[in-house]
Amino acid sequence: MGFCPQCRASGTLLDDDTDGGRAGAPTPVSSVVGDRVERLHTGIDEFDRVLGGGVVPGSVALLGGAPGVGKSTLVLEIGSALSEAGKSVLIATGEESRPQVGLRARRIGSVAEGLSVTTESDVEHLCDLIRSEEYPFVVIDSIQTVTGVAGEGAIGSMTTIRDSAARLISAAKHADVAVVLIGHITKDGTIAGPKSLEHMVDVVLSLDGDPHRNLRFLRSMKNRFGSVNEIGVFEMTDRGLEPMSDPSAVLSGGRDGTSAGSVLFPALDGRRSLIVEIQALTVPTRSAQPRRSVKGLPMSRVHQILAAIERHGRMPMGELEVYVSVMGGLSISEPAADLPTALAIASAATGIPLGSVAAWGEVGLTGEVRRVDQADRRRTESHRLGISRVVEAADRRNLDDVLGELGLHAQADGTRSGLRSVPAESSGVS
After folding, report:
1. Which of 338, 331, 354 is nearest to 303 (CA)?
2. Cα–Cα separations (whole angstroms), residue 22 to 15, 26, 44
3. Cα distances (angstroms) measured from residue 248 to each of 64, 82, 184, 276, 382
4. What domains are there in the chain, each with its CATH number?
5. Does residue 118 sit in helix, strand or coil?
6. 52 in Cβ contact with 58 (< 8 Å)
7. pLDDT of residue 270
8. What band does 22 get if pLDDT is binned at 50, 70 and 90?
């Protein structure tokens, strides 16, 4: 053109012949495969573990969790740790003022020279801060408070969240800056906003825990740079979130083994084995529909276990209220928890304590106890904590045999919890 159409000055335009290097041009895979990307190590082992070894530059992570669970505290600690390692970190908060962030930073001891905070919420200004490449790590708290381009939607609307996230992701990829977006959650526990938001980002993290306990669990629901089965365990204290290097000792602690209805279970989360305590309580009732209360386990699995205990373990469950809970606030979904749940219920029903026992195995509807994966790792973790006895599946082993070996069959005279054993012929067991 010879002149700029905006300022009308001549000689201000340069010829840029870079068509072959634009993002959309096909490129051989061999030319883009290089050395491993150098991750940003935060120094918080539990956080780095969930991400697969640290933060990948240019990645965008979405962190969700219930109000007050510790999302803002966690990112503040991460930002402080990176700042102490020589990295500049920016926290953009649209929900708190600078003094409020300063009070939290002072309380938890996360005050570092390289850590900056801004209350900017305009998406274009945030993108400019990311493109400046001054901050290798940027936190947006939260994506629901980011304002879009004027006239393109209300704050927090589906359109604004999706468009703002798309702009921030594009800026992060272009500048090779790691960005963490904090997201609110809805009543059913999902991250508020369009579902496509989770597809747009590289990592989806969930921070949860029992609101009445101090334990917090960080999980990866999606991770393009590592495993999605890892878990990080933290303890909420007056100094913030403290990483727990040995959560098994805490989750199974305070147990003397003299109470009936308690069994230890080596749960697996990624490459980590956590020893948790499964407790059960049974109470006689005359109600036509005895109550079943389950916490930390799938309700449908517990119902199947109760049916298997009554049919194949020869223990009537129809006149008992049953309460089952995984202590510590951890949720377990793997079938390996069937056997320890069954043993805990049987121990509570008979009033017989099992002592220091860890168990794992899947209980089938026909009464068999099946093997589960990673038995060696479960056994090693159990022995590390000094558990004296382990109960696991073996060839041709059924639930009735396991209960018999542990002395958990109901007493024929009904002296224990009002239970009477069911005759084998009536239960279908030969």
Report:
1. 338
2. 15, 9, 37
3. 25, 28, 30, 7, 9
4. 36-245 (3.40.50.300), 249-427 (3.30.230.10)
5. strand
6. no
7. 67
8. low
The DSSP-derived string for 336-365 is GGHHHHHHHHHHHHHT----SEEEE-EEPT
The pLDDT tens digits of the residues spanning 275-297 come to: 999 999 999 998 889 999 999 99
* Tokens describing residue 35: 């050395």
| Dihedrals phi, psi of 50, to nearest 5 degrees | -65, -35
* Residues whose CB falls within 8 Å of the CB of residue 313, separated by 6 or more in sequence, listed in order: 342, 346, 367, 399, 400, 403, 408, 409
Tokens of 335: 């079938």
State yes or no: pLDDT of 210 exceeds 90.
Answer: no
Whole-angstrom Cα distance, residue 168 to residue 172?
A: 6
Q: How many CB atoms lie within 10 A of CB 410?
A: 22
Q: How many CB atoms lie within 10 A of CB 304?
A: 16
CB atoms within 10 A of CB 100: 14
Q: Report how far residue 91's alpha carbon sits from residue 47's, in angstroms, rounded to the nearest whole number.
A: 18
Confidence class of residue 211 from pLDDT cuts 50, 70 and 90? low
Q: CB-hemisphere CA count at 13 Å for 56? A: 17
Q: Which long-range contacts (CB under 8 A, 24 or more apart) does 143-147 make?
A: 143/62, 143/168, 143/181, 143/182, 143/183, 143/193, 143/197, 144/183, 144/184, 144/192, 144/193, 145/94, 145/95, 145/121, 146/94, 146/121, 146/122, 147/121, 147/122, 147/123
Residues 269 and 330: their CA atoms lie apart, in Å, by 11
Name the pairing type of β-strands 203-208 and 215-223: antiparallel
**What span, in angstroms and rounded, lies between the C-alpha atoms of 70 and 236?**
8
Q: Which residue has the tokens 């917090």?
A: 216
Cβ atoms of 410 and 427 closer than 8 Å: no
> Rounded CA gap, 283 and 293, in Å?
12
- Asked if residue 428 has pLDDT above 60, the reply is no
